[in-house]
Amino acid sequence: MEKPFAITLSVNSSLANHTGSWRVEKPEYVHRMPPCNNACPAGENIQNWLYIAEDGSYEAAWRALIAENPFPAIMGRVCYHPCQSVCNRAELDEAVGINSVERFLGDHAIEKGWKIPAPAIESGHKVLVIGAGPAGLSAAYHLRSMGHTVIVRDATHAPGGMMRYGIPKYRLPREVLDAEIDRIKDMGVIFEMNTRVDDVHEALNEGFSAVFLAIGAQLSKRAYIPASEAARILDAITVLHDVEDGNQPLLGRKVVVYGGGNTAMDVARTAKRLGAEEAIIVYRRTRDKAPANDEEITEALEEGILVKWLSTVKHAGENSLQIEKMALDADGFPQPTGEFETLEADSLILALGQEVDFSLLGNSADLDTKDGLMPVDSTMMTSHPGIFAGGDMIPADRTVTTGVGHGKKAARNIDAWLRKTSFEKIENKDIVTFDQLNTWYYTDAPHVVRERLEATRRAKDFSEVVKGLDESNALYEARRCMSCGNCFECDNCFGVCPDNAIIKLGPGKGFEINLDYCKGCGICVSECPSSSIVMVPDK
Amino acid sequence: MLRQVEGSKAVADTVAACRPQVICAYPISPQTHIVEGLSQLVKNGELQNCEFINVESEFAAMSVAIGASATGARTYTATASQGLLYMVEAVFNASGLGLPIVMTVANRAIGAPINIWNDHSDSMSQRDSGWIQIYAETNQEAADLHVQAFRIAEELSLPVMVCMDGFILTHAYERVDVAEQEQVDQFLPPYAPRQILDPSNPVSIGAMVGPEAFTEVKYMAHMKTLSALAVIPKVAKDFEIIFGRSSGGLIRRHKTLGAQTIVIALGSVLGTIKDVIDEMVAADIAIGVLGIIAFRPFPTTEVREALSQAKRVIVLEKAFQVGVGGIVIDNVREALRGTNTAAYTVIAGLGGRPITKQSLRSYFDKAVNDQVEELTFLDLDKDLADAELAREAGR
Amino acid sequence: MSTTPIKFYQVGSFAVGNRLLSADDRSIQSDPDRTNALTSGHRACQGCGEALGARYALDAAMRATNEKIIAVNATGCLEVFSTPYPESSWRIAWLHSLFGNAPAVATGVAAALKAQGKSDIRVIGQGGDGATVDIGFGALSGMFERNDDVLYICYDNEAYMNTGVQRSGATPPAARTATTQAVGENPGNVFGQGKNLPRIAMAHEIPYVATATVADLRDLEAKVTKAMSFRGARYIHVLVPCPLGWGSASCDTIKIARLATQSGLFPVFEAEHGEVVASTAIRHRVDVEEYLKLQVRYSHLFSPKRRDDVITHLQSIADKNIARYNLISDESASS
Ligand SMILES: Cc1cc2nc3c(=O)[nH]c(=O)nc-3n(C[C@H](O)[C@H](O)[C@H](O)COP(=O)(O)OP(=O)(O)OC[C@H]3O[C@@H](n4cnc5c(N)ncnc54)[C@H](O)[C@@H]3O)c2cc1C
Ligand SMILES: Cc1ncc(C[n+]2csc(CCOP(=O)(O)OP(=O)(O)O)c2C)c(N)n1
Ligand code: SF4
Ligand code: SF4
Ligand SMILES: [Mg+2]
Question: Which of A294, A403, B217, C277 is the most buried (most CB within 10 A)?
Answer without folding.
Answer: A403
